[in-house]
Design a protein that fits this description.
Layout: E1 3-7, E2 9-12, E3 17-23, E4 31-37, E5 44-50, E6 56-58, E7 66-71, E8 76-81, E9 90-97, E10 113-114, E11 118-123
Parallel strand pairs: 2-11
Antiparallel strand pairs: 1-3, 3-8, 4-5, 4-9, 5-6, 7-8, 9-10, 9-11
Protein backbone atom coordinates (compact mmCIF):
# COMPACT_ATOMS: atom_id res chain seq x y z
CA UNK A 1 0.00 0.00 0.00
CA UNK A 2 1.41 3.36 -1.04
CA UNK A 3 0.50 6.49 0.89
CA UNK A 4 1.12 9.97 -0.46
CA UNK A 5 0.69 12.84 1.96
CA UNK A 6 0.21 16.43 0.85
CA UNK A 7 -0.78 19.76 2.27
CA UNK A 8 0.59 21.37 5.37
CA UNK A 9 2.70 24.48 5.33
CA UNK A 10 2.78 27.56 7.49
CA UNK A 11 -0.08 29.06 9.48
CA UNK A 12 -0.54 31.54 12.25
CA UNK A 13 -1.90 30.54 15.62
CA UNK A 14 -5.65 30.29 15.39
CA UNK A 15 -5.51 29.55 11.70
CA UNK A 16 -6.32 26.46 9.68
CA UNK A 17 -4.53 24.00 7.45
CA UNK A 18 -5.52 20.81 5.69
CA UNK A 19 -3.64 17.60 5.00
CA UNK A 20 -4.51 14.90 2.53
CA UNK A 21 -3.32 11.31 2.21
CA UNK A 22 -3.86 9.47 -1.05
CA UNK A 23 -3.87 5.69 -0.72
CA UNK A 24 -3.17 3.19 -3.47
CA UNK A 25 -5.52 0.76 -1.77
CA UNK A 26 -8.35 0.99 0.71
CA UNK A 27 -11.05 -1.37 1.85
CA UNK A 28 -13.41 -1.71 4.77
CA UNK A 29 -10.85 -3.49 6.94
CA UNK A 30 -8.37 -0.62 6.78
CA UNK A 31 -7.63 1.90 9.50
CA UNK A 32 -5.99 5.16 8.43
CA UNK A 33 -4.33 7.53 10.86
CA UNK A 34 -2.27 10.66 11.22
CA UNK A 35 0.70 10.82 13.52
CA UNK A 36 3.07 13.71 14.14
CA UNK A 37 6.57 14.21 15.39
CA UNK A 38 7.96 17.49 16.65
CA UNK A 39 11.71 18.12 16.84
CA UNK A 40 13.22 16.35 19.81
CA UNK A 41 9.98 14.62 20.68
CA UNK A 42 8.56 11.18 20.14
CA UNK A 43 6.03 10.46 17.46
CA UNK A 44 2.49 10.87 18.73
CA UNK A 45 -0.93 9.80 17.58
CA UNK A 46 -3.22 12.51 16.21
CA UNK A 47 -6.33 10.93 14.72
CA UNK A 48 -7.59 7.77 13.05
CA UNK A 49 -10.54 6.63 10.99
CA UNK A 50 -11.91 3.23 10.10
CA UNK A 51 -12.37 3.07 6.36
CA UNK A 52 -15.44 0.86 6.52
CA UNK A 53 -17.66 2.46 9.12
CA UNK A 54 -15.99 5.83 9.41
CA UNK A 55 -15.45 5.55 13.16
CA UNK A 56 -12.99 8.21 14.31
CA UNK A 57 -10.55 8.47 17.19
CA UNK A 58 -8.71 11.60 18.29
CA UNK A 59 -5.90 12.49 20.64
CA UNK A 60 -7.15 14.63 23.49
CA UNK A 61 -4.82 17.42 22.41
CA UNK A 62 -6.59 17.86 19.06
CA UNK A 63 -10.16 16.87 19.89
CA UNK A 64 -12.58 19.58 18.85
CA UNK A 65 -9.99 21.28 16.65
CA UNK A 66 -9.00 18.62 14.12
CA UNK A 67 -11.29 16.54 11.93
CA UNK A 68 -10.31 13.36 10.10
CA UNK A 69 -12.41 12.19 7.19
CA UNK A 70 -12.25 9.87 4.22
CA UNK A 71 -13.37 10.09 0.62
CA UNK A 72 -14.12 6.61 -0.62
CA UNK A 73 -14.38 7.72 -4.22
CA UNK A 74 -10.90 9.20 -4.24
CA UNK A 75 -9.30 6.82 -1.70
CA UNK A 76 -8.07 9.77 0.31
CA UNK A 77 -7.99 10.60 3.98
CA UNK A 78 -8.02 14.22 5.05
CA UNK A 79 -7.09 15.97 8.26
CA UNK A 80 -8.62 19.40 8.68
CA UNK A 81 -6.79 21.35 11.35
CA UNK A 82 -8.48 24.39 12.86
CA UNK A 83 -7.60 26.65 15.77
CA UNK A 84 -3.97 25.77 15.28
CA UNK A 85 -1.49 26.28 18.09
CA UNK A 86 2.29 26.60 18.02
CA UNK A 87 2.50 23.24 19.75
CA UNK A 88 0.88 21.65 16.68
CA UNK A 89 4.12 22.33 14.81
CA UNK A 90 5.49 18.98 13.66
CA UNK A 91 6.04 16.70 10.72
CA UNK A 92 2.75 14.92 10.09
CA UNK A 93 2.65 11.35 8.79
CA UNK A 94 -0.15 9.36 7.26
CA UNK A 95 -0.31 5.70 8.26
CA UNK A 96 -2.50 2.73 7.44
CA UNK A 97 -3.04 -0.83 8.48
CA UNK A 98 -5.13 -3.54 6.93
CA UNK A 99 -6.33 -5.34 10.05
CA UNK A 100 -5.73 -3.10 13.05
CA UNK A 101 -7.55 -4.04 16.21
CA UNK A 102 -9.36 -1.24 18.01
CA UNK A 103 -7.11 -1.26 21.05
CA UNK A 104 -4.07 -0.60 18.83
CA UNK A 105 -5.47 2.45 17.07
CA UNK A 106 -3.15 4.90 18.86
CA UNK A 107 -0.04 2.73 18.58
CA UNK A 108 2.20 3.77 15.74
CA UNK A 109 4.24 0.59 15.76
CA UNK A 110 1.10 -1.37 14.87
CA UNK A 111 0.68 0.34 11.50
CA UNK A 112 2.27 -1.41 8.52
CA UNK A 113 2.16 1.37 5.95
CA UNK A 114 3.49 4.91 6.18
CA UNK A 115 3.60 7.87 3.88
CA UNK A 116 6.28 10.49 3.74
CA UNK A 117 5.98 13.31 6.24
CA UNK A 118 4.65 16.76 5.56
CA UNK A 119 5.67 19.78 7.61
CA UNK A 120 3.17 21.84 9.54
CA UNK A 121 4.49 25.01 11.16
CA UNK A 122 2.34 27.24 13.34
CA UNK A 123 3.69 30.64 14.31
CA UNK A 124 2.60 32.49 17.42
Amino acid sequence: VQLQASGGGLAQAGGSLGLSCAASEASSSFTFAWFRQAPGKEREFVAAIKWGGGTTTYADSVKGRFTISRDKGKSTVALQMNSLRPEDTAVYYCAADRHLILSSTRMGDQYDYWGQGTQVTVSS
